[in-house]
From TrEMBL:
Keywords: ATP-binding, Hydrolase, Nucleotide-binding. This is 5-oxoprolinase subunit A. SUPFAM superfamilies: Glycoside hydrolase/deacetylase (SSF88713). Its EC number is 3.5.2.9. Catalyzes the cleavage of 5-oxoproline to form L-glutamate coupled to the hydrolysis of ATP to ADP and inorganic phosphate. Belongs to the LamB/PxpA family. It comes from Pectinatus haikarae. It comes from the Bacteria. Signal peptide: none annotated. Forms a complex composed of PxpA, PxpB and PxpC. It catalyses: 5-oxo-L-proline + ATP + 2 H2O = L-glutamate + ADP + phosphate + H(+). The gene is pxpA.
Amino acid sequence: MKKIDLNSDLGESFGAYKIGNDSAVLQYVSSANIACGFHAGDPHVMHKTVALALENHTAIGAHPGLTDLNGFGRRNINITPQDAYEITLYQVGALYAFVKAAGTQIQHVKPHGALYNMAAKDAALAEGIANAVYDIDSSLILYGLAGSELIKAGSHAGLKTASEVFADRAYMPDGSLMPRNLPGAVFSDDKTAISQVLQMVTAGTVTTADGSEISVQTDTICIHGDNAKALLFAEKVNNALNEAGISIKSFKD
């Protein structure tokens, strides 16, 4: 039976602000990317989300982002590769403490938002992130956009990598994600998400915004936890994969 990892960006509430429905989404995914406090999240939310992931037997990953709480980490900020190294080291270290206190381990690291997309195209930034992950623990898996500089940097650093695709985002012809400010960039229809996921998993291709098909390596599928349809997408995608005979498993399983 073919296996695939299904992940979601979670733990993105902070202070008085509640974002997403983590406890419900965790029933349907195999890996959780937990925000580490820079773009979202706070110590209480990190602690709680680690506990929820353990209750649901969901693998835990760190989700470091840019220092941009107001912009939810989705605004490009000019940083150096050294900055990328240090903010990754700092944030993964914070989650590592909560995970260790809970008696478990981090499975992977997946950068968030603008940091993720910048590192997908900027080899030097990607190298800074990959080196930080390797220096923390060389057994960690680095998640990155399929075909990106981040995947290349992770492999070069000696890390195991997971090529990530997205259930709820449209693609550009070069394999990058369509910018969120463009119409149709974020899916609101579960049927569209399911169709794209099944195409990527079974055919190894994705249909881009201009109607062309490109090849895409598919190791793990992301559903954004802050999407208004996150719970519906998680449930429907989970069911569709199982019905297609595809088992949802984290890398640790």
